[in-house]
Specification:
Immunoglobulin-like, four-stranded antiparallel β-sheet, alpha+beta
Length: 318
């Protein structure tokens, strides 16, 4: 019985790893393809290839997966001394956020034609998810860079306890609502051409998610419900909760990418609330001019935080 459970765990881990890294089409003689810098693709072969074939620009045809009609211009090809790694340099920077298809003519090795190949070049999927999560939390923080959710932000950032409670509840509800919104968009709204109802449907989903979390907490953990109950209602008034489903629909995110975006947006909102609450608690003891007390000085502090978060702009994580 223990052996069976052990194999079940191994199979589960392998399935998750396959799901996160994605399926890969290629050639049995090609070990790996990957991006390098912003204008190169590297092909690693299982053995030495013929130099004349590998360095011939006509041996390759590369295009972005969504645009198969636009073939990218290859500037040059370099082969290492062992003739096992070819580096293709392009005339223009590549859009590494999109998967690329690399078609080869018959791969020549030791004078033998091993057949043509269709290779997929893309980033590791787990890296893409981490990039989306950290991007929503820091680089494109919804409060400090997009100025969304400010009403709840200023209302719940007076005390650290309140800020943490609101941030946690918002993250939980937003993650649940985003996954539901993705499923409804992909399997109902998009197939039946009802995308013009996106805003109405997503607002209803957020309200339904809040009500669902409210009911579950009330039954399972009354103490936690008592602590979070006040903040649950405020989630509906937070415009970030509707911005995230609209973004995942516009960008055609997958289910895991939608969850990463929602989780990152929730964590970013929690960070913003906590930082603001820490400063506002200190401001209560500071000598602030009477005309700046309350919300005026809070707006000044929020502006300074926004300037600080601009330092993350343009940062590329993966």
């Amino acid at each position: 019985m223990k052996e069976l459970r052990r194999y079940q765990w191994l199979v589960g881990i392998l399935l998750v790893a396959l799901f996160l890294t994605g399926c890969k089409t290629g050639h049995q003689f090609v070990k790996k393809t990957e991006f390098k810098d912003s204008d190169k693709i590297i092909i690693s072969f299982a053995g030495p290839v013929d130099e004349a074939w590998a360095t011939n620009v006509g041996s390759y045809a590369v295009y972005e997966k969504p645009d198969p009609d636009i073939v990218l211009n290859i500037k040059g090809i370099a082969l290492n001394s062992e003739r096992t790694v070819a580096t293709i340099t392009f005339a223009a920077p590549l859009n590494t956020g999109e998967a690329h298809i690399l078609n080869t003519t018959g791969i020549m090795s030791e004078g033998q034609d091993l057949g043509a190949g269709m290779l997929t070049v893309k980033k590791l999927y787990i890296g893409v998810l981490i990039s989306i999560l950290l991007g929503a939390a820091l680089i494109n923080n919804f409060v400090f860079t997009k100025y969304l959710g400010l009403c709840v932000f200023f209302g719940c950032s007076q005390k650290r306890g309140t800020a943490i409670g609101m941030g946690l509840v918002f993250t939980i509800v937003l993650s649940f609502a985003a996954v539901m919104a993705w499923a409804l968009y992909q399997f109902v709204l998009k197939p039946y051409q009802l995308t013009f109802l996106n805003i109405v449907v997503f607002i209803g989903l957020v309200s339904l998610s809040v009500q669902g979390v409210d009911t579950i907490l009330r039954k399972i953990n009354p103490a936690l419900f008592k602590a979070f109950g006040v903040y649950l209602v405020l989630v509906i008034a937070n415009c970030i909760a509707i911005a995230v489903p609209l973004m995942l629909a516009d960008n055609e995110y997958t289910g895991w990418e939608s969850f990463s975006l929602a989780l990152g947006a929730g964590i970013g909102f929690l960070i913003a609330l906590f930082l603001m609450a820490c400063v506002r608690e200190r401001l209560e003891l500071a000598k602030v001019p009477p005309s700046f007390k309350g919300l005026p000085i809070a707006f000044v502090v929020a502006g300074l935080f926004a300037l600080a978060f601009l330092g993350f702009s343009g940062l590329s994580i993966y």
